[in-house]
Amino acid sequence: MATVEFFFDYSSPWTYYTYSRIETFCANTGADLVWKPFLVGGVFNKVNPSVYNRRDNPIPPKDNYYKKDLADWARYLDIEKNPTAVSPLNSVKSLRGAFVAIEEGKIGPYSGACFKAYWTDGRDISQESELKDIAASVGMDGDAFIERIGMDDIKKKLFVNTDDIIERGGFGSPTFFVNGDDMYFGNDRFELMRFALTGEKTAVS
């Protein structure tokens, strides 16, 4: 069966936009969706440190367009994007929580709740109190969830996925691997992934 590995970090608005379509995309193309939480900051530190320089020294015209692009995509996807509670987000605990959600069969709803809490509702999802509420809202035991994200095996899984994407040539979020080694990056790569999976081209009219 065809597979799409979805490497994601909740700190990325583009990944929120991707999340809103990835499950439907995989269902429509017959691909098995494999959720891969990873720490994008760890990737930036090792292979893409220029991100920090661009953040600290923005180019005004490019920065203005970036903001417009974010707003355009939000409107197109019917996503309400608002100012965040903290920026940048420390997403470590929320991403550990993603592994718990995978174990519990709740990764789709959990991820949606995390993205919405941070990018729409202005909540600080680095805080355990917020994550406990999010876990409970999607049907997990909040207390057990908080205990689980502190366990060593869960912590290790996040490091493993982060190292994995670096070794495979990734540099940011969202990143996808189609059928193992065919890499795509960004919210706007669904047409190319569809072509890779099905041979279908989407006509521009």
How would you sum up this structure, described in words?
There is one protein chain. This protein has about 200 residues and is α+β, with helices and mostly antiparallel strands. It has one domain: 3-Layer(aba) Sandwich (Glutaredoxin), CATH 3.40.30.10. It has ten helices and four strands. The chain has a four-stranded mixed sheet, sandwiched between helices. The radius of gyration is 17 Å and the shape is globular.
Give the key terms.
Glutaredoxin, 10 helices, 10% strand, 205 residues, alpha+beta
Provide a quick synopsis of the model.
The chain is an alpha+beta fold and 205 residues long. The chain has helices at residues 13-29, 40-47, 50-56, 60-76, 92-104, 107-120, 128-137, 142-149, 152-167, 190-198, and strands spanning 3-8, 32-37, 175-178, 182-185. The mean pLDDT is 96.
Strand content: 5-15%
In what order do the strands lie side by side in the largest sheet? Answer: 2-1-3-4
Question: Radius of gyration, rounded?
Answer: 17 Å
Determine the oligomeric state from the structure: single chain
Kindly name the structural category: alpha+beta
Shape: globular
CATH topology: Glutaredoxin
Helix content: 55-70%
Individual helix count: 10
**Number of DSSP strands?**
4
- C-alpha end-to-end distance: 32 Å
H/E element order: EHEHHHHHHHHEEH
CATH architecture: 3-Layer(aba) Sandwich
Major β-sheet annotation? 4 strands, mixed
